[in-house]
């Protein structure tokens, strides 16, 4: 006769303090994302899974958490019918159902995503890497899902470029070039400024089912910087990136504001209470520190600010 094992997790803790997150991190799973008329995308995703824990309970059921994650992610792999945030949402809702002591369940994932594209001048096929960010939080009031991406690009400092413009203008004047020609030249030939690798993060979190296209999120984030960058670049492509970035010099703050404008223009279907997170970090080339700016804001406030409404 087998001995009944004690449920230590369900006993009372020595210190009766509730915990906001208890769970597991770094769970690797293959996830299959379906696409219309194309082969599915296979992602190697890393999941974090949490539930809250009341003050009267010693521990969470870790094995049950893993069981739920395995169930939903295996279903996602077989069915080929989930967006990344829906995988997280289903898992969070199942966690909430299976833990009678839990009032909040959270599931998040990150994965590498490869997109095919063509180089800007030589029109050669290449790929670029994107970090997908997805999560969901389930409570008795409902489930809120988040989808987003972290992308790389290039920025050029307007301040340093302004100094180069002043130097070029003075040099041309000293050489006897007339003012009108100087103005036309500087308008056509962007002057140098120190450049940096930029990292843009854009996520959208909402309740209900306001579908947000991941590719649109990626494009907004990439286009918010001075120029896109490409894994493959022949000389004409390098010239294109250099020219474009210097023709659209941006501070780190400008990049966040460009993301804000892109969200308002592209996602007019989002509810007012949807939350947008926008972050820009630049790896400075002439400083030992880096630059960072961010904004977390609800869509109603963001629309009012971008459109200049009170």
What does this structure look like?
This protein is of the alpha+beta class and 310 residues long. It has 8 helices and 8 strands; from the N terminus they run ββααβββααβαααββα. An 8-stranded antiparallel sheet has the order 1-2-3-4-5-6-7-8. It has helices at 62-79, 84-98, 158-174, 179-188, 214-223, 235-247, 252-266, 299-306; strands spanning 19-35, 38-53, 104-118, 125-139, 142-156, 195-207, 275-283, 291-298. It is elongated and about 80 Å long.
Number of strands: 8
What is the number of helical segments per DSSP (H or I, 4+ residues)?
8
What proportion of the residues is helical, as a percent range? 25-40%
- Report how far apart the termini are: 74 Å
Series of H and E elements: EEHHEEEHHEHHHEEH
Strand order of the largest sheet: 1-2-3-4-5-6-7-8
Mean pLDDT: 87
Structural class by SSE content: alpha+beta
Ranges where pLDDT stays below 50 over 5 or more residues in a row are: none
> What value does the Rg take, in angstroms?
25 Å
Give the strand content: 25-35%
Overall geometry comes to elongated
Largest sheet: 8 strands, antiparallel
């Amino acid at each position: 006769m087998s001995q009944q094992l004690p449920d230590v997790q369900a006993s009372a803790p020595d210190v009766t303090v509730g915990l906001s997150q208890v769970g597991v991190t770094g769970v690797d799973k293959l996830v299959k994302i379906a696409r219309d008329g194309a082969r599915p995308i296979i992602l190697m995703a890393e999941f974090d899974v949490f539930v809250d824990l009341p003050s009267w309970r010693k521990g969470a059921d870790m094995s049950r958490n893993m069981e739920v994650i395995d169930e939903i992610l295996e279903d996602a792999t077989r069915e080929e019918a989930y967006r990344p945030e829906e995988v997280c949402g289903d898992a969070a809702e199942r966690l909430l159902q299976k833990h009678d002591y839990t009032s909040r369940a959270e599931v998040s994932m990150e994965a590498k995503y490869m997109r095919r594209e063509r180089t800007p001048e030589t029109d050669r096929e290449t790929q670029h890497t994107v970090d997908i960010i997805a999560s969901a939080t389930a409570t008795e009031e409902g489930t809120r899902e988040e989808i987003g991406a972290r992308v790389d690009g290039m920025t050029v400092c307007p301040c340093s470029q302004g100094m180069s413009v002043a130097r070029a203008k003075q040099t041309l004047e000293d050489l006897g070039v007339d003012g009108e020609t100087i103005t036309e030249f500087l308008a056509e030939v962007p002057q140098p400024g120190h450049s940096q690798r930029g990292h843009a993060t854009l996520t959208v979190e909402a309740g209900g089912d306001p579908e947000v296209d991941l590719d649109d999120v990626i494009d907004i984030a990439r286009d918010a910087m001075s120029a896109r960058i490409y894994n493959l670049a022949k000389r004409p492509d390098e010239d294109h990136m250099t020219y474009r970035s210097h023709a659209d010099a941006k501070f780190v703050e400008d990049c966040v504001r460009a993301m804000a404008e892109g969200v308002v223009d592209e996602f007019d279907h989002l509810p007012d209470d949807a939350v947008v997170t926008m972050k820009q970090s630049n790896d400075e080339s002439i400083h030992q520190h880096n630059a960072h700016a961010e904004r977390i804001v609800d869509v109603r406030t963001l629309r009012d600010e971008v459109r200049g409404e009170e």
